[in-house]
Design goal:
Number of helices: 9
C-alpha cells in the first residue's frame, strides 16, 4: 500500500493515501488536478477502496493476506482459496491439508491440468515430470498475496498458459506474530457408508495443524537504527492421521487355496465351473482340482492374500466380495518459510526467501506409489521433501529506469520403498517364478499379478518403480528492465531456466504375470485363482534393464512490451514474447522411440509360431522348421529380422537428443486495452488477446527410456511356470507388450486466449464486472495406438487363417495379428489435440475500507477437449468475518 505525494511550485501539496497495488499490477489513479495555492498548504485524499481497472486488459484474480487469513477453509490449503476465483474450477473431492499435490485438479479457464505454472516469489515451483505437483507447498500464514494469471496478460509473463503466483510475507518496522491451531477429528464426522453397512466404526481421521509466525526489524546496532533490515519466519506442523479409504475385495477362500472350488460363486452367486485344460476343457470332478495338479508356487501365490473376513448382509451383494478393510495411517508434514528484506540504499531493495517442506507417509494403498495394491500387504514408505531459495533485487537506477533481478533454485526428492520387505519377498513367500535378471530386483520383490476375471479381485501388484528415486532441481534467473518515457512504460526482460530430473525408470523388472481367464488361451481353467494354482498364465512380461535417467532441458524466453497511456481514458498494452524451449533430453542418450519412417517390413522380426510336430505342441521357426519348447511361442526367431525394427536412438544417426524437434523460436504476441468510454474513471471496457506457448510435461519424454533396443520387455502368451523358465534359459526375446513413439517433427503446445469485459464502479466501494473469455488450444499432445489387433481378427468365421493350428477353436496370440509385425502395442504421441473454451463470467466486489471485503462471482463455461465438459460455478467469500456463502460446481461426469 503506497502513498502518492506531488509537489509543484504555485500549487498546494497533494497527498493520496491507501493506494493498494497487487504484484505485477498496473493501476490508474485517473486525472489528478492540483489546486493553486501555497506549498505549505496541502490536500489529502484517500484512494478509492475498489476501482475499475483502467490500466490493462488482463484477466486475473488476486487474494491478499487479509482475505487468506480469514477465509474459512477446512484444510488451510491456498489452492482451496484459489478455486473461489471466477474462471477456476476445482475437481478434487476436498482438500484436507496442503501438500505437494495440492496444485492438482485445478483447471484455469478450460486449460489442462498440466498446463499451469506455480511460482513462489517469482520462482518456478513445479515438478517438471507430471506438472501435477510442487516442490514446496507454503502455509497460508506465510503468504502475502496470491495472484492467478488467466488470460490476456502481458508479454512479461510466460512459461505456461496460466500461472499461480505466490508472494511471501516480509517483516516490517514493528514486531508482529501469530499462533494458530486447527483441529479436526473423526468424532466430528459422519461414518462412511460402507463402514456403516459393515457395522464398522469410523476410521481415524485426525488433522492437527499448528503454526506460528513472527516478523519485524532485525536488531543490529547499525542496521536497526535506520530500519533497513527486516525478517519474517513461519513454521507449520501437520500431525495428521489420514484415512486411505475403504476396500472391499475378493480374496481366495481356505478351500480354494486347496483346489476346492465346490463352494465358489460368481457375482450372481452362481457356481463357478473349473475346467481341466488337459481333458478337453471338461469340468474337474466335483469342481475340485486334484492335489497332484496343484503347483507349490501357485499355492504360495494364493497364500499371499489374507483369509476372507466379511459377508455383505445384502443378499444382492453377498458374492461380490469377501474381504473388508478401512485403513488409516500417520502422515506428518512440516513447512518452514523465512524471508529477510534489506535495503542497502534508498534506491535498492534486496530480499532472500527460503522454504522447506518435510513430508513422509506410510500408505497402505490408494496412492500412486502403491501401484494396484488394494488390500493390506505392507505399507509403502513415501517421502517427498522439497526446498526453495530465492534472492531478489530491485534497483531504481534513475527516477525513470528500474531493474529487477531474481536468482533461485528449487528442488524436491521423491523416494518410496516397502516398510516390511519380508511381506513381499519372493523367497520368503515361496513365489518361485523365474527371473531373467534377478540383479534388477535387488529387494527380491514378488512380480505384479492380476486376477481381474475374479469379481473385485484383490491385487498384490506394487508400483513398478519400487524401490524408487526421483529428484527434480530447477535453476532460474530473471532480469526485467523498465523505462518510463512520457506516457509509455517500456519493459524488456529475459527468463532462463535450467531443469534437471534424475529418475529411476519403472520397467517390469520384477515381472508381470496375468492369470485372467481368456477363451483364446488353451490352458485356461475358467477362473484366475485356479489358473494360478495350476501354474498357467495368460501373459507374462519382464524387462531386461532398469536404467536411471538424467533428464535435462533449458528454457530461454525474451520479451519486450509497452504499456501506453494514450489518453487519460485509454490504455494500450502490447508486446511480444520469444520462446526458445527445445525438447527435454537425457544426458547419456538413453532414449529410444519407435518411428514409422524407420520401420522396414523387409527387416521385420520373425516370431516362433505354434505348431504340432509328432503329436507334440512346439514353437516352430517358420523359416527353417526348427522347433523349440512350446513356451517360446511368440519369441523372436534367432538371427531373423531386426527385433528393434523401427526403433531409433536419441543422438544416433542424426536423431535429435530429444527424439523430436520444434521450431528454434516461437513468437507470442500479446495485446490488451482498457478504455473509459465516459471519461469519469468509473467505467472500463477491457479486453485483450495473446498467444501462450507451453512445453509438454516431462513424463512422455522420460517414458522413452523404456523402449527397445535399450529395454526389451518380452511378453509371453498362454504358458506355464515351466515355460517362463525355458524362456529364461533360452535367452530368446519377444515383443514388448507396448512401446511408445515420440519421434519426428513436433510443435510447442499453443493456447490462443482472448477476453472482453465491462467493469462499472458504483459509489466508492462497489464494482460490477461482466465479461466473456475464450481460448483455443492447438498442437496439444495426445496418444493413440497405431498397432492394434485389427477389428474382427478374433472371429474365426471371418478370418479362419488366424486360427491357432494347435487348437480347434482359438485364435493366434495378438502379436501374430498386428500390422507392424514384431511389435506389440505402439502408442504414438502426436501434437494433434485441440480444445476450445468459452466462458461467461460475472462478479461483484464490495469493500468497507480495509475492514471488510465481499466478492461474489459466477462462471458458466464450456470446454471441448478429448471429451466434452461443462462447468458452472458460483463463488462467494467474505473477509475478515470468515463467512463462506458456499459454492457449487458440476461437469458432465460429476454431480453436486
Amino acid at each position: 500500500t503506497f502513498t502518492l505525494a506531488i509537489d509543484a511550485p504555485g500549487f498546494k501539496h497533494y497527498r493520496e493515501t491507501g493506494v493498494a497495488l497487487d504484484s505485477s499490477e498496473q493501476r490508474s489513479l485517473g486525472v489528478i488536478r492540483l489546486q493553486i495555492g501555497q506549498a505549505t498548504e496541502s490536500v489529502t485524499i484517500a484512494a478509492e477502496a475498489v476501482t475499475v481497472n483502467l490500466a490493462s486488459g488482463e484477466r486475473s484474480g488476486t487474494l491478499d493476506s487479509t482475505q487468506l487469513d480469514h477465509l474459512a477453509l477446512r484444510g488451510r490449503d491456498v489452492f482451496d482459496a484459489i478455486s473461489l476465483m471466477a474462471g477456476v474450477v476445482d475437481t478434487s473431492d476436498g482438500r484436507d491439508a496442503p501438500g505437494p499435490t495440492s496444485i492438482g485438479n485445478i483447471y484455469i479457464l478450460g486449460g489442462r491440468n498440466d498446463s499451469k505454472n506455480m511460482t513462489i516469489d517469482g520462482v518456478t515451483n513445479l515438478d517438471t515430470g507430471s506438472n501435477g505437483s510442487v516442490h514446496s507447498m507454503p502455509s497460508m500464514d506465510s503468504i502475502a498475496e496470491v495472484k492467478v494469471l488467466m488470460s490476456a496478460y502481458s508479454a512479461e509473463s510466460g512459461r505456461n498458459p496460466s500461472s499461480i503466483n505466490v508472494i511471501t510475507k516480509g517483516g516490517g518496522k514493528q514486531f508482529h506474530g501469530t499462533v494458530g491451531w486447527f483441529f479436526r477429528n473423526e468424532d466430528l464426522n459422519a461414518n462412511d457408508y460402507f463402514n456403516n453397512l459393515a457395522g464398522k466404526p469410523r476410521p481415524e481421521s485426525r488433522f492437527n495443524i499448528a503454526n506460528y509466525s513472527v516478523g519485524g526489524p532485525v536488531i543490529l546496532p547499525k542496521l536497526s537504527r535506520d530500519r533497513k533490515l527486516f525478517f519474517f519466519v513461519n513454521q507449520e506442523f501437520q500431525h495428521t492421521i489420514v484415512p486411505y479409504g475403504t476396500k472391499t475385495v475378493t480374496v481366495p477362500t481356505a478351500l480354494e487355496r486347496q483346489g476346492d472350488f465346490s463352494k465358489s460363486y460368481n457375482t450372481n452367486c452362481s457356481p463357478i465351473t473349473i475346467k481341466d485344460p488337459l481333458n478337453g476343457q471338461k469340468a474337474f470332478p466335483g469342481n475340485i482340482i486334484p492335489p497332484s495338479r496343484l503347483t507349490t508356487t501357485g499355492q504360495a501365490i494364493l497364500n499371499i492374500f489374507p483369509l476372507p473376513n466379511y459377508v455383505d448382509p445384502n443378499p444382492s451383494r453377498a458374492c461380490n466380495y469377501n474381504y473388508f478393510s478401512s485403513l488409516t495411517g500417520a502422515y506428518p508434514r512440516r513447512t518452514e518459510t523465512g524471508r529477510v528484506d534489506y535495503s542497502p540504499k534508498d534506491n535498492w531493495q534486496l530480499y532472500v526467501s527460503l522454504s522447506n517442506n518435510a513430508d513422509s507417509q506410510n500408505t497402505p494403498y490408494t496412492t500412486w506409489v502403491t501401484g494396484s495394491l488394494n488390500f493390506p500387504l505392507t505399507p509403502i514408505v513415501f517421502k517427498q521433501p522439497g526446498r526453495l531459495a530465492t534472492m531478489h533485487s530491485t534497483n531504481v537506477i534513475t527516477p525513470s529506469l528500474f531493474n529487477e533481478v531474481s536468482v533461485a533454485v528449487s528442488q524436491n526428492t521423491l523416494t518410496f520403498t516397502p516398510l516390511d520387505v519380508s511381506k513381499v519377498d519372493r523367497t520368503k513367500l515361496g513365489v518361485n517364478i523365474p527371473q531373467r535378471n534377478p540383479s534388477l530386483n535387488p529387494l527380491n520383490i514378488i512380480p505384479d499379478m492380476t486376477f481381474s476375471s475374479v469379481q473385485n479381485a484383490a491385487n498384490p501388484s506394487l508400483n513398478d518403480g519400487t524401490p524408487y528415486f526421483n529428484q527434480n532441481t530447477i535453476y532460474s534467473v530473471t532480469d526485467n528492465v523498465s523505462k518510463i518515457k512520457d506516457t509509455h512504460t517500456f519493459k524488456v526482460g529475459v527468463y532462463f531456466e535450467h531443469t534437471q530430473k534424475i529418475q529411476s525408470a519403472s520397467p517390469l523388472t520384477r515381472g508381470s504375470i496375468n492369470f485372467n481367464t481368456d477363451g483364446n488361451n488353451p490352458n485356461d481353467s475358467n477362473n484366475a485363482y485356479s489358473n494360478a494354482l495350476l501354474g498357467n498364465f495368460d501373459t507374462y512380461a519382464e524387462a531386461t534393464a532398469r536404467p536411471k535417467g538424467n533428464f535435462l532441458f533449458s528454457n530461454l524466453e525474451l520479451y519486450l512490451q509497452d504499456s501506453w497511456r494514450v489518453t487519460h481514458s485509454l490504455s494500450l498494452d502490447f508486446g511480444v514474447r520469444f520462446y526458445h524451449d527445445p525438447p527435454q533430453y537425457e544426458g547419456t542418450n538413453q532414449l529410444a522411440s519407435f518411428s514409422r519412417s524407420a520401420y522396414d517390413p523387409k527387416n521385420a522380426a520373425v516370431l516362433l509360431r505354434p505348431a504340432t510336430v509328432n503329436g507334440v505342441k512346439v514353437a516352430q521357426d517358420p523359416l527353417s522348421g526348427q522347433t523349440y519348447p512350446f513356451g517360446l511361442v511368440g519369441s523372436f526367431v534367432p538371427g531373423a529380422g531386426n527385433p528393434a525394427d523401427g526403433d531409433i536412438l536419441a543422438g544416433v544417426n542424426g536423431a535429435p537428443r530429444g527424439l523430436y524437434t520444434v521450431a528454434p523460436w516461437d513468437i507470442a504476441p500479446r495485446f490488451g486495452f482498457a478504455w473509459d468510454p465516459i471519461g469519469s474513471g468509473k467505467t472500463a471496457v477491457r479486453g485483450g488477446a495473446g498467444i501462450y506457448f507451453d512445453r509438454i510435461e516431462g513424463n512422455p519424454v522420460m517414458g522413452q527410456i523404456g523402449n527397445p533396443p535399450l529395454i526389451f520387455s518380452p511378453t509371453q502368451y498362454y504358458g506355464t511356470f515351466a515355460d517362463i523358465q525355458s524362456s529364461v534359459s533360452s535367452g530368446l526375446l519377444s515383443p514388448n507388450g507396448s512401446v511408445t513413439s515420440l519421434a519426428g517433427n513436433g510443435h510447442q503446445q499453443a493456447v490462443y486466449n482472448f477476453s472482453m469485459d465491462i467493469q462499472r464502479q458504483i459509489g466508492r466501494s462497489d464494482v460490477i464486472d461482466i465479461g466473456y473469455t475464450g481460448s483455443m488450444a492447438r498442437h496439444l499432445l495426445w496418444q493413440r495406438n497405431i498397432n492394434p489387433v485389427p477389428l474382427g481378427s478374433n472371429f474365426l468365421g471371418l478370418n479362419p487363417q488366424n486360427r491357432d493350428p494347435t487348437t480347434t477353436s482359438t485364435v493366434l496370440a495378438p502379436n501374430f495379428l498386428r500390422p507392424y509385425q514384431g511389435a506389440g502395442d505402439i502408442l504414438l504421441y502426436e501434437f494433434a489435440g485441440t480444445s476450445n473454451y468459452h466462458g461467461l463470467l460475472a462478479s461483484y466486489a464490495h469493500r468497507w475500507g480495509s475492514k471488510m471485503n465481499v466478492n461474489l462471482s459466477y462462471t458458466f463455461s464450456k470446454a471441448l477437449d478429448e471429451s466434452d465438459s461443462y462447468s458452472s460455478q458460483v463463488d462467494a467469500f467474505v473477509s475478515p468475518r470468515s463467512r463462506n456463502y458456499g459454492r457449487a460446481g458440476f461437469d458432465r461426469n460429476q454431480t453436486f
